[in-house]
User: Which sequence fits this backbone?
């Protein structure tokens, strides 16, 4: 078994952190949240010779799921997640695209499998626990690798901030509960990648994030 490794490809005008999680020895992995620009994502996979086994979605917003169906077909892999509560968002992606002036570049998403609290997903020998963390989006999930002390938190938590809750389905109180009851108890040492900007560690956010202190 090799080391769990991550590479980030910021995509689209939203500068969303499309993330490739992979085993640095076996060169197999997954793409998390392909928000668009699938040509750039595939170029990064080819450059690093990574074989993708699945695509994982943290939630159904356009900046995270906008390129999911195209990449699924281009790579010939299954699309996993998020929680089924995000079905309305995923079925409205084309409508969202019209609002943002990118009609035709985005397709509605139909996952091959929904995820729920307590599920696990994996590639190679790297297993991730699924945490349902609503608030930013009703069906938002977080992927937590206990062995590596690492989590991909999507737009639940940011370095110095938290996910916005003024979008359809947003719930500020639910988001704070998700962070304080599901993420922070995992431990101060847990490192995280988030949906936009730099990642960090849960301990630093617990101590200094103005939305949590």
Assistant:
């Amino acid at each position: 078994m090799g080391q769990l490794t991550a590479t980030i490809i910021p995509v689209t005008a939203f500068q969303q952190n499309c993330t490739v999680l992979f085993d640095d020895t076996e060169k197999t992995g997954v793409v998390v949240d392909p928000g668009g620009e699938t040509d750039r994502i595939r170029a990064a996979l080819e450059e690093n010779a990574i074989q993708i086994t699945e695509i994982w979605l943290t939630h159904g917003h356009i900046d995270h799921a906008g390129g999911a169906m195209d990449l699924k077909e281009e790579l010939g892999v299954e699309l996993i997640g998020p929680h089924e509560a995000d079905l309305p968002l995923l079925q409205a992606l084309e409508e969202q695209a019209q609002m943002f002036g990118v009609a035709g570049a985005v397709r509605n998403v139909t996952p091959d499998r929904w995820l729920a609290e307590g599920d696990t997903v994996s590639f190679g020998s790297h297993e991730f626990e699924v945490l349902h963390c609503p608030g930013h989006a009703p069906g938002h999930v977080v992927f937590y690798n206990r062995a590596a002390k690492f989590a991909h938190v999507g737009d639940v938590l940011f370095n110095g901030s938290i996910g916005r809750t003024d979008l359809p389905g947003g719930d500020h109180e639910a988001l704070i509960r998700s962070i304080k009851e599901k993420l922070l108890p995992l431990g101060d040492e847990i490192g995280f990648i988030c949906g936009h900007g730099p990642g960090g560690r849960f301990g630093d956010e617990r101590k200094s994030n103005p939305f949590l202190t």
Remarks:
- The CA atoms of residues 150 and 191 lie 5 Å apart.
